[in-house]
Give the backbone structure.
Amino acid sequence: MATVDGGKVVIFGAGGPVGAATITALKDHYTLRCTDAVALDQIVAAERRQSVTAPLPELLDAPHERTVVDVTNYDQVRAACEGMDAAINLTVLRHDLDKAFAVNTVGAYNVAKAAADAGLRRLIHTGPVHTRMGHLADHWLDHQVPDDVPLHPGDDLYALSKYLGGHITRVFAEERGLEVLTYLFCGFRPRQVIPGQGGGVGSFTVSWEDSGESFLYGLRAGDMPSPYEVFFIAAETPDRKYRVDKARRLLGWQAKDTFEALYSRPAG
Protein backbone atom coordinates (compact mmCIF):
# COMPACT_ATOMS: atom_id res chain seq x y z
CA MET A 1 0.00 0.00 0.00
CA ALA A 2 1.46 3.35 -1.04
CA THR A 3 -0.11 5.40 1.78
CA VAL A 4 2.52 7.24 3.83
CA ASP A 5 0.96 8.02 7.22
CA GLY A 6 4.26 8.83 8.89
CA GLY A 7 8.00 8.45 8.53
CA LYS A 8 10.47 10.42 6.44
CA VAL A 9 9.83 12.62 3.41
CA VAL A 10 12.38 14.32 1.17
CA ILE A 11 11.35 17.60 -0.45
CA PHE A 12 13.22 18.75 -3.56
CA GLY A 13 12.88 22.48 -4.20
CA ALA A 14 12.00 23.21 -0.58
CA GLY A 15 13.32 26.77 -0.81
CA GLY A 16 10.47 28.05 -2.99
CA PRO A 17 7.11 29.34 -1.73
CA VAL A 18 5.23 26.08 -2.29
CA GLY A 19 8.10 24.35 -0.50
CA ALA A 20 7.74 26.79 2.39
CA ALA A 21 4.01 26.08 2.64
CA THR A 22 4.64 22.34 2.39
CA ILE A 23 7.21 22.42 5.20
CA THR A 24 4.67 24.17 7.42
CA ALA A 25 1.98 21.61 6.61
CA LEU A 26 4.15 18.52 7.07
CA LYS A 27 6.63 19.37 9.84
CA ASP A 28 4.47 18.05 12.69
CA HIS A 29 3.59 14.82 10.89
CA TYR A 30 6.81 13.67 9.17
CA THR A 31 10.56 13.92 9.54
CA LEU A 32 11.58 16.11 6.63
CA ARG A 33 14.73 16.27 4.55
CA CYS A 34 14.46 19.71 2.95
CA THR A 35 16.66 20.21 -0.11
CA ASP A 36 17.26 22.90 -2.68
CA ALA A 37 20.01 23.91 -5.12
CA VAL A 38 20.80 26.81 -2.76
CA ALA A 39 21.12 26.38 0.99
CA LEU A 40 17.84 27.21 2.71
CA ASP A 41 19.72 29.35 5.21
CA GLN A 42 20.91 31.57 2.36
CA ILE A 43 17.42 31.80 0.85
CA VAL A 44 15.97 32.95 4.16
CA ALA A 45 18.83 35.31 4.99
CA ALA A 46 18.57 37.00 1.58
CA GLU A 47 14.74 36.95 1.67
CA ARG A 48 14.67 35.43 -1.79
CA ARG A 49 10.91 35.57 -2.32
CA GLN A 50 9.14 34.69 -5.56
CA SER A 51 6.79 37.61 -4.95
CA VAL A 52 6.02 40.13 -2.22
CA THR A 53 3.44 37.86 -0.59
CA ALA A 54 5.25 34.53 -1.15
CA PRO A 55 6.35 32.73 2.03
CA LEU A 56 9.91 31.81 2.98
CA PRO A 57 10.80 28.34 4.30
CA GLU A 58 11.07 27.72 8.00
CA LEU A 59 14.51 26.47 9.08
CA LEU A 60 13.62 23.37 11.05
CA ASP A 61 15.69 21.87 13.85
CA ALA A 62 16.65 18.19 14.20
CA PRO A 63 15.41 15.55 13.62
CA HIS A 64 14.52 17.38 10.41
CA GLU A 65 17.34 17.95 7.93
CA ARG A 66 18.21 20.51 5.30
CA THR A 67 20.84 20.04 2.64
CA VAL A 68 21.89 21.27 -0.79
CA VAL A 69 20.87 18.99 -3.67
CA ASP A 70 21.16 19.67 -7.40
CA VAL A 71 18.38 17.67 -9.07
CA THR A 72 20.38 17.54 -12.29
CA ASN A 73 22.92 15.35 -10.44
CA TYR A 74 21.57 11.82 -10.06
CA ASP A 75 24.02 10.79 -7.34
CA GLN A 76 22.96 13.70 -5.13
CA VAL A 77 19.28 12.96 -5.71
CA ARG A 78 19.75 9.26 -4.99
CA ALA A 79 21.57 10.02 -1.74
CA ALA A 80 18.76 12.38 -0.70
CA CYS A 81 16.19 9.60 -1.25
CA GLU A 82 18.06 7.10 0.89
CA GLY A 83 16.07 6.09 3.95
CA MET A 84 12.99 8.07 2.92
CA ASP A 85 9.40 6.83 2.69
CA ALA A 86 8.20 9.36 0.10
CA ALA A 87 9.46 12.19 -2.08
CA ILE A 88 8.01 15.52 -3.20
CA ASN A 89 9.46 17.25 -6.25
CA LEU A 90 8.81 21.01 -6.33
CA THR A 91 11.82 21.97 -8.43
CA VAL A 92 11.34 24.31 -11.37
CA LEU A 93 13.28 26.61 -13.64
CA ARG A 94 11.33 28.64 -16.17
CA HIS A 95 13.24 30.92 -18.50
CA ASP A 96 16.71 29.60 -19.36
CA LEU A 97 16.71 27.05 -22.20
CA ASP A 98 19.44 24.66 -21.04
CA LYS A 99 18.70 24.95 -17.34
CA ALA A 100 14.93 24.59 -17.80
CA PHE A 101 15.33 21.23 -19.52
CA ALA A 102 18.04 20.20 -17.05
CA VAL A 103 15.83 20.88 -14.01
CA ASN A 104 12.31 20.30 -15.33
CA THR A 105 12.97 17.27 -17.54
CA VAL A 106 16.26 15.64 -16.51
CA GLY A 107 15.56 16.54 -12.88
CA ALA A 108 12.19 14.79 -13.06
CA TYR A 109 13.93 11.71 -14.46
CA ASN A 110 16.51 11.76 -11.68
CA VAL A 111 13.93 12.13 -8.92
CA ALA A 112 11.67 9.39 -10.32
CA LYS A 113 14.57 7.00 -10.89
CA ALA A 114 16.07 7.68 -7.47
CA ALA A 115 12.70 7.22 -5.78
CA ALA A 116 12.16 3.91 -7.58
CA ASP A 117 15.73 2.73 -6.93
CA ALA A 118 15.40 3.61 -3.23
CA GLY A 119 12.13 1.71 -2.92
CA LEU A 120 9.99 4.74 -2.02
CA ARG A 121 6.28 4.12 -1.93
CA ARG A 122 5.00 7.43 -3.25
CA LEU A 123 6.28 10.38 -5.26
CA ILE A 124 4.33 13.63 -5.55
CA HIS A 125 5.50 15.45 -8.66
CA THR A 126 4.44 18.98 -9.59
CA GLY A 127 3.96 21.05 -12.71
CA PRO A 128 2.02 23.94 -14.20
CA VAL A 129 -1.34 24.31 -15.88
CA HIS A 130 -1.00 27.06 -18.45
CA THR A 131 -4.55 28.32 -18.65
CA ARG A 132 -3.92 30.32 -21.81
CA MET A 133 -1.17 29.18 -24.15
CA GLY A 134 -2.31 31.37 -27.04
CA HIS A 135 -2.51 28.63 -29.68
CA LEU A 136 -5.49 26.89 -31.24
CA ALA A 137 -5.08 23.68 -29.25
CA ASP A 138 -5.17 25.17 -25.77
CA HIS A 139 -8.20 24.89 -23.47
CA TRP A 140 -8.90 28.56 -22.89
CA LEU A 141 -12.36 28.48 -24.48
CA ASP A 142 -13.41 25.28 -22.69
CA HIS A 143 -15.26 24.78 -19.42
CA GLN A 144 -15.44 21.83 -17.01
CA VAL A 145 -11.88 20.92 -17.99
CA PRO A 146 -10.94 17.71 -16.09
CA ASP A 147 -7.62 16.86 -14.44
CA ASP A 148 -6.85 14.15 -16.99
CA VAL A 149 -7.19 16.35 -20.07
CA PRO A 150 -4.03 16.11 -22.22
CA LEU A 151 -1.84 19.17 -21.74
CA HIS A 152 -0.91 21.05 -24.92
CA PRO A 153 2.31 22.93 -24.10
CA GLY A 154 3.04 24.18 -27.58
CA ASP A 155 6.53 25.66 -27.81
CA ASP A 156 6.50 27.42 -24.42
CA LEU A 157 9.79 26.52 -22.71
CA TYR A 158 8.40 26.23 -19.20
CA ALA A 159 5.28 24.32 -20.22
CA LEU A 160 7.08 21.96 -22.59
CA SER A 161 9.98 21.07 -20.30
CA LYS A 162 7.64 20.34 -17.38
CA TYR A 163 5.27 18.44 -19.69
CA LEU A 164 8.10 16.10 -20.69
CA GLY A 165 9.10 15.69 -17.05
CA GLY A 166 5.57 14.67 -16.19
CA HIS A 167 5.53 11.97 -18.86
CA ILE A 168 8.86 10.65 -17.60
CA THR A 169 7.41 10.18 -14.11
CA ARG A 170 4.39 8.45 -15.67
CA VAL A 171 6.66 5.88 -17.33
CA PHE A 172 8.41 5.19 -14.02
CA ALA A 173 5.02 4.74 -12.36
CA GLU A 174 3.88 2.27 -15.00
CA GLU A 175 7.15 0.35 -15.32
CA ARG A 176 8.83 0.50 -11.90
CA GLY A 177 5.97 0.14 -9.42
CA LEU A 178 6.32 3.68 -8.10
CA GLU A 179 3.02 5.44 -7.33
CA VAL A 180 3.15 8.98 -8.71
CA LEU A 181 0.69 11.76 -7.95
CA THR A 182 1.18 14.77 -10.21
CA TYR A 183 -0.10 18.08 -8.83
CA LEU A 184 -0.79 20.84 -11.35
CA PHE A 185 -0.80 24.49 -10.23
CA CYS A 186 -1.27 27.87 -11.86
CA GLY A 187 -1.95 30.99 -9.78
CA PHE A 188 -1.21 31.56 -6.09
CA ARG A 189 -2.43 34.07 -3.52
CA PRO A 190 -1.89 34.50 0.21
CA ARG A 191 -4.69 33.23 2.43
CA GLN A 192 -5.32 36.72 3.77
CA VAL A 193 -6.92 39.01 1.20
CA ILE A 194 -5.02 42.29 1.39
CA PRO A 195 -7.10 45.50 1.08
CA GLY A 196 -6.41 47.29 -2.18
CA GLN A 197 -5.51 44.13 -4.10
CA GLY A 198 -8.40 44.73 -6.47
CA GLY A 199 -11.29 42.50 -7.40
CA GLY A 200 -11.37 39.22 -9.23
CA VAL A 201 -9.48 35.97 -9.00
CA GLY A 202 -8.22 33.67 -11.73
CA SER A 203 -10.00 30.47 -12.68
CA PHE A 204 -7.08 28.37 -11.43
CA THR A 205 -5.89 29.85 -8.13
CA VAL A 206 -4.95 28.43 -4.74
CA SER A 207 -3.62 29.97 -1.55
CA TRP A 208 -0.05 29.23 -0.57
CA GLU A 209 -1.38 27.66 2.63
CA ASP A 210 -3.82 25.36 0.83
CA SER A 211 -1.11 24.32 -1.62
CA GLY A 212 1.05 23.10 1.26
CA GLU A 213 -1.78 21.26 2.96
CA SER A 214 -2.58 19.39 -0.25
CA PHE A 215 0.68 17.44 0.13
CA LEU A 216 -0.34 16.17 3.54
CA TYR A 217 -3.50 14.77 1.98
CA GLY A 218 -1.54 13.37 -0.95
CA LEU A 219 0.84 11.45 1.28
CA ARG A 220 -1.97 10.05 3.41
CA ALA A 221 -4.38 9.18 0.61
CA GLY A 222 -5.18 5.53 -0.04
CA ASP A 223 -4.19 3.55 -3.10
CA MET A 224 -4.98 5.23 -6.39
CA PRO A 225 -6.98 3.75 -9.30
CA SER A 226 -3.79 3.75 -11.38
CA PRO A 227 -0.08 4.15 -10.58
CA TYR A 228 -0.06 7.64 -12.15
CA GLU A 229 -2.76 10.16 -11.29
CA VAL A 230 -3.00 13.87 -12.11
CA PHE A 231 -4.72 16.42 -9.87
CA PHE A 232 -5.72 20.04 -10.34
CA ILE A 233 -4.76 21.84 -7.11
CA ALA A 234 -6.96 24.92 -7.09
CA ALA A 235 -9.92 26.52 -5.39
CA GLU A 236 -13.34 25.99 -6.90
CA THR A 237 -14.49 29.15 -8.68
CA PRO A 238 -18.00 30.11 -9.83
CA ASP A 239 -17.16 29.78 -13.53
CA ARG A 240 -16.27 26.09 -13.01
CA LYS A 241 -13.76 26.37 -15.81
CA TYR A 242 -11.50 23.74 -14.25
CA ARG A 243 -12.93 20.81 -12.34
CA VAL A 244 -11.41 20.21 -8.91
CA ASP A 245 -13.56 17.31 -7.72
CA LYS A 246 -10.96 14.60 -8.35
CA ALA A 247 -8.72 15.86 -5.53
CA ARG A 248 -11.71 15.84 -3.20
CA ARG A 249 -12.68 12.34 -4.27
CA LEU A 250 -9.28 10.60 -4.24
CA LEU A 251 -7.24 12.71 -1.82
CA GLY A 252 -9.94 14.01 0.50
CA TRP A 253 -8.57 17.52 -0.10
CA GLN A 254 -10.29 20.68 -1.19
CA ALA A 255 -9.20 24.29 -0.92
CA LYS A 256 -10.37 26.10 2.20
CA ASP A 257 -9.69 29.51 0.68
CA THR A 258 -12.07 30.32 -2.15
CA PHE A 259 -11.51 34.10 -2.27
CA GLU A 260 -15.19 35.10 -2.42
CA ALA A 261 -14.28 38.59 -1.23
CA LEU A 262 -12.49 39.14 -4.53
CA TYR A 263 -15.43 38.36 -6.80
CA SER A 264 -18.61 38.87 -4.76
CA ARG A 265 -20.50 41.94 -3.57
CA PRO A 266 -22.09 42.38 -0.14
CA ALA A 267 -25.80 41.65 -0.09
CA GLY A 268 -28.16 44.61 0.16
About this structure: Strands lie at 8-12, 31-36, 65-68, 86-89, 122-128, 179-185, 187-189, 205-207, 228-232. The chain is about 30% helix and 15% strand.
